[in-house]
Amino acid sequence: MLGLFNRTGMRFMGTKQSFHKSDLTFQERPNLKPKPAADHQYTFGGLSTDYMLEINYDVHNGGWQRPLIKANEPFELDPANATLHYSIECFEGLKAYITHDDRTMLFRPDKNFERMNSSHRQLGFPEFNPKEMTECLKELIKIEKEWIPRRPMHSLYVRPTSICMDDRLSLSKVEKMKTFIILSPVGPYYPRGFVPVKLYCDTNTVRAWPQGFGDKKIGGNYGPTLRTSRMGNLKFGTDQVLWLLHDWVTEAGTMNFFVFWKNEEGEDELITPPLDGTILPGVTRDSILTLTKELRQFKVSTRPFKIQELMKACTEKRVYEAFGAGTAAIVSPVQSFVYDNVTYEIPVDKEKGAGKLTQRILQMMLDLQDGKTNRPEWQFYV
Amino acid sequence: MLGLFNRTGMRFMGTKQSFHKSDLTFQERPNLKPKPAADHQYTFGGLSTDYMLEINYDVHNGGWQRPLIKANEPFELDPANATLHYSIECFEGLKAYITHDDRTMLFRPDKNFERMNSSHRQLGFPEFNPKEMTECLKELIKIEKEWIPRRPMHSLYVRPTSICMDDRLSLSKVEKMKTFIILSPVGPYYPRGFVPVKLYCDTNTVRAWPQGFGDKKIGGNYGPTLRTSRMGNLKFGTDQVLWLLHDWVTEAGTMNFFVFWKNEEGEDELITPPLDGTILPGVTRDSILTLTKELRQFKVSTRPFKIQELMKACTEKRVYEAFGAGTAAIVSPVQSFVYDNVTYEIPVDKEKGAGKLTQRILQMMLDLQDGKTNRPEWQFYV
């Protein structure tokens, strides 16, 4: 048995190690959907485009099949499909932009597809070459370019997903799976300016744990959290959960969490928890850390901190601002959190709905995504 | 908002609190599949019967809809279906039997549907009345009775499943979902006698965590474990993982784990970890604890124990036998486990492939499921 597998035990020898863009085929659909009006108010994920990318894998049929661009349409899934029972599934989220000079750009897709491979390893899915995936995605984006709204702060949300395609009622290794990418045109996350969120700390639930899988973008990290977010909403009217591991602050809802404060040493510091295996290695998180370090205006730290430190800093008025970071909103300002029935307020500019650093980070990210600032290693032109 | 929800925040007022068997409708399919031959060799989950039970829920359309028995056929799922991305899904497993006196019986379905409600709460799904679900299932079993093989140790595996039916690219509360039950005729788990399994202890991965959701039968507890079971198989040829939480023994593969040993105090003891939130409250586990306590022949304990205790007991030849417990196999004897590259052997009767207590427990369970032993509170005749 051992000889069939490589060192990581995740790729099958004798089957294709990755699909390739050179094998991509295009299956034209008979009719295209009408495009939205120029002033359409987009809701996040409310519309899908005409086409999707689909790549099937079958261990008994040569591994990865030819990548295919085809109509975005429903799948037929057997009620015994293993994804529906055992959550053998992962996803990614990134965006395509029309820049100010009318070019089409993907923002750091290489990071997403590297992370997707790490999810694949967790689920026993085969890996692929992230460069080949990026090239296939570029072809899809070229075909669907007209779906990207040509308006400020609009973009095309890109959702890669992998699911198991075995129909079986027992948990065992994956033989067939499918990777697909769907696209959805989106407007600004906050169409009428920032709306700062309220967070709920539940000391009775833990999202992820050491030596678990909280650092993977797999379905199993999401569905089970719905109970706690609902509890917070019902009890305190909060929007998201500030996830704690015992007292350690980890993530906010489905976003990484940043605090800008004067720390106990009296230094101005932007802080977010480190990648210890319980934190999703967010692409926006990584971009923000890089950009703010380059400013050289305050300390930027990735280190563990406790909710008690944050509560103390709030009480002592040392917190300047706090925000979540993720692909959908880029930054999402936080106005308060509830811990043990007590609400702690975090300063937010009343008019703008966010602090000055949060606003500045958003602008830096928008300038990169709009092509006004150059950073070639992050900007993948289509 | 608050007034719309009850104390647990999980049921919607003004919508139906449960579906009801009295609303059940039957949609006949035009053609039935051919039934397997009398000597058919069943593989677990390899066949599905003609019909399934399906109950839809829509918060914007009165909540629970009428239960429907209809053809078991593929679903159409949009690529943006939230179950495929966020693992908003749970399942159950139980069996229907033809007894020695030709009656049809479900074994403890009430326990499964109570546990399913606890999974529903975790996922923000609406709850239902377990009695109504059991009555609907009975109707399905009546229609499909001819699919239950009339042969020793054969049964009809019953797989209830709930999935989210919202199409959305962001994680938010469930508005539409579907509960369904499919059936699959199965033979004995070990058709040619017990095949004892080898277990792999990985000190680098943790399946479930205190204050997590390891006690729920939700998809997210299964897919992410595939990496570790594959690692063990490739490195050591093991069949399943013996999951540890740091040093504490928790579960074996997808089964509860029992050890029968002479403990450090010199007592004969059957031991399994307690329901501390990291352990699935198995129905077979519960049945075995009840039956063995009634024997009054040895101590029966639910208390935490460490892998080092088990290693020491193995070395000192104090382990009589060990087994996994679950619906599919009932009991699954363990012949060894690997910890830190060392293999620890567990005694197994060479001829039978299992220890005496394991064999005895299997027989007690088979007698109950065959109706030879009466225990009315566990035996639900259809």
How would you portray this structure in words?
Two copies of one chain form a homodimer. With 382 residues, chain A is α+β, with helices and mostly antiparallel strands. The first copy, chain A, folds into two domains: 168 residues, D-amino Acid Aminotransferase, Chain A, domain 1 (2-Layer Sandwich); 173 residues, D-amino Acid Aminotransferase, Chain A, domain 2, CATH 3.20.10.10. The first copy, chain A, has seven helices and 20 strands. In chain A, the strands form two sheets. In chain A, strands 1, 2, 3, 4, 6, 7, 8, 9, 10 and 20 form a ten-stranded mixed beta sheet that branches. A six-stranded mixed beta barrel of chain A has the order 11-12-13-14-17-18, surrounded by four helices. In chain A, α2 crosses α3. Chain A starts with 24 loop residues before the first strand and ends with a strand. Chains A and B meet through β5, α1, α2, β9 and β10 of A and β5, α1, α2, β9 and β10 of B. Chains A, B: It comes from Halteria grandinella. Chains A, B: Keywords: Amino-acid biosynthesis, Aminotransferase, Branched-chain amino acid biosynthesis, Pyridoxal phosphate, Transferase. Chains A, B: One of its GO terms (biological process) is amino acid biosynthetic process. Chains A, B: This is Branched-chain-amino-acid aminotransferase.
